[in-house]
């Protein structure tokens, strides 16, 4: 498998916030950034400040050009991990076209994609429903060839999209056997998690007999760090850990309204988005942290991130930002697609 190269490998002081406390970790290098295409592959999404970043033209051509420009910017800055999904509109298609234009780059890249959600928004900003979830063998068999066709070949990592504890994917023998077949072919099979019970879903997937899974992409940020202990357990068991939504869909950026977090970032001498990204990159169990940047300037701000200060007052203040998982995910579900 192609793994991401490190960007900015200089040693830093790391900090860790768990669901219940914040503790310092030994100095070490920050996890490298990857580029996530969730906000770049479709006209509507839930990221705050998207209008200012993308403007009014959300045509396929405009979004393709934006995605390719961001992929170029990521490549030029040393980012080698790219994340997409079947439900991210045309993200796989945009990525596949970019790869076809730069075939010499493929061997240096780690490409991750996901199945289990379908994009049903019909490229409309005002669609009533943008995604439809189905964790079945039929869905996998339908979406796997679509991924191969869009990317021009297999991804390095292929994940069940938004696995939850009640997902039938955890008990479907035929589906699990098919995933084992893909794993035996050299594809790293994994899960992404969402919702207030991410830790339960991850632990269940990890402890399955003859589990086909070895990668997890989970939400972890200063407002929702509850999956941290489970991610540490997975990492200790040899899993590859990818952090998504480190800026909480824009809440932990200048476009959000998290005043306490903004004050902490100012006191720490960095921007709010940099503080949020840096806190995620400093987690000792994080292998890659995804940037959802929509402009090169946002990407540069993410790359400039560093670990927060490790004094007791700062660590306590960071831990105090955490919300109850149920409240965090309810607020996320209520966000407007725009």
From TrEMBL:
Stretches the record annotates as Disordered: 1-27
Domain NADP-dependent oxidoreductase: from-to ranges: 64-314
Residue ranges, compositional bias (Low complexity): 7-27
PANTHER family attached to this UniProt entry: D-THREO-ALDOSE 1-DEHYDROGENASE, NADP-DEPENDENT OXIDOREDUCTASE DOMAIN-CONTAINING PROTEIN
Entry protein name: Aldo/keto reductase
């Amino acid at each position: 498998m192609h793994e991401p190269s490190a960007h900015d490998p200089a040693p830093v002081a790391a900090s860790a916030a768990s669901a219940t406390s914040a503790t310092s970790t030994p100095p070490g290098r920050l996890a490298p950034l990857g580029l996530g295409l969730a906000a770049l592959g479709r006209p509507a999404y839930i990221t705050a400040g998207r209008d200012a970043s993308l403007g009014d033209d959300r045509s396929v051509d405009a979004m393709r050009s934006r995605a390719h420009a961001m992929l170029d910017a990521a490549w030029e800055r040393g980012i080698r991990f790219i994340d997409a999904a079947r439900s991210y509109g045309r993200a796989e298609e945009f990525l596949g076209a970019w790869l076809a234009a730069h075939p010499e780059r493929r061997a240096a890249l780690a490409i991750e994609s996901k199945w289990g959600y379908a994009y049903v928004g019909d490229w409309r900003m005002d669609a009533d429903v943008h995604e439809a979830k189905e964790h079945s063998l039929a869905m996998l068999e339908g979406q796997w060839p679509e991924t191969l066709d869009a990317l021009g070949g297999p991804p390095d990592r292929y994940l069940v999209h938004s696995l939850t504890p009640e997902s039938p994917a955890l008990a479907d023998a035929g589906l699990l056997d098919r995933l084992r077949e893909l794993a035996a072919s050299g594809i790293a099979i994994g899960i992404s998690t969402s919702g207030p019970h991410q830790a339960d879903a991850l632990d269940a997937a990890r402890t399955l007999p003859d589990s086909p899974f070895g990668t997890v992409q989970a939400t972890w940020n200063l407002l929702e760090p509850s999956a941290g202990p489970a991610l540490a357990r997975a990492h200790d068991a040899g899993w590859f850990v990818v952090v998504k939504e480190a800026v909480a869909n824009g809440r932990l950026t200048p476009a959000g309204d998290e005043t306490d977090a903004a004050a902490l970032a100012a006191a720490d001498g960095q921007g709010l988005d940099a503080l949020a990204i840096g806190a995620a990159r400093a987690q000792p169990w994080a292998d890659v942290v995804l940037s959802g940047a929509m402009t090169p300037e946002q990407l540069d701000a993410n790359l400039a991130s560093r670990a927060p200060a490790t004094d007791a007052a700062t660590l306590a203040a960071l831990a105090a930002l955490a919300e109850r998982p149920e409240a965090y995910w309810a607020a996320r579900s209520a966000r407007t697609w725009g």
